[in-house]
Every structure is written in C-alpha cells, then in structure tokens.
Specification:
134 residues, alpha+beta, Hypothetical upf0131 protein ytfp, 5-stranded mixed β-sheet
C-alpha cells in the first residue's frame, strides 16, 4: 500500500527501523493542507487549508508495516487514517483526531523532522511556516 509521511517518518533511517519493508518512492505534495504541530506530544499534524501544500514522502509499505505504524501513531486514539488519491492511486496518511492548539515541537522531535526533510530533499520553507503555528 502507499503511505504519505510528513513528520518524523520522513527520516529514512527511522522509517526503515520502524517499517522494515518500507520503500521510499519519491517526494510529493499534498495539496490544500497545511503542516502544524499540536497535542501533548507536540507532534506533526496536517489540517485542511486552501491553496496550501504539505510536502512529504510517498512510501510503499506492507500490511505488517501498517500495523507497526498504527501502534506508533497511537491509532485510533491520537491519529486517525486519512485517504487521498495520487494519480489514481489510493494513499494513506494519519491526521490527529483532536485538533488542539498549536504547540512548538521538542528540539529532539524537530531535529528528526529536519533530518527527514533533508533525506527526502523537501523544501524546509514549509516546515518553517508550520513552526509559526499560524
């Protein structure tokens, strides 16, 4: 199945450790969404926003990888699944259940996300925008 990562799972080494079958396919943009950080975990989330994009990575993952991600993302308590289509193919990602106010991420978490942006060659401008919480 196809999975869209936009937070700490962009980090190639961490993603491979978490999901041994995962294959990074390419970077893509999720349109009409914006990146933010929230919850007591100060973790990445996406929310609808017209004319905005969230850069991320498209991964091919196995069924057992998906089960591991479900545990890591605390599905369905913290995150729920969101599906969208990319060139006719169904893609799964996670979005937070409770849209609590913006909270700046911890330095450790942010460094993992930044490393992921570099691994996937994403434009950090969108990460900086997400960190403003506006």
């Amino acid at each position: 199945m196809l999975y869209f990562a936009y937070g700490s799972n962009l980090h190639h080494f961490q993603m491979k450790r978490r999901c041994k079958d995962s294959i990074f396919l390419k970077k893509i943009n999720l349109k009409n969404f914006k990146l933010t950080f929230r919850s007591k975990y100060r973790a990445a989330d996406i929310e609808p926003k017209r004319n905005s994009i969230v850069p991320g990575a498209l991964f091919e993952i196995s069924k057992s990888d998906e089960k591991k991600l479900d545990v890591y993302e605390d599905f369905p308590i913290l995150y729920k699944k969101y599906y969208f289509h990319y060139y006719g193919k169904k893609v799964m990602t996670y979005t937070m259940v409770k849209k609590s106010p913006f909270k700046f991420p911890t330095e450790r978490y942010l460094n993992i996300v930044k490393r992921g942006y570099r691994d996937c060659k994403l434009n950090e401008r969108y990460l900086k925008k997400g960190l403003k919480g506006s």
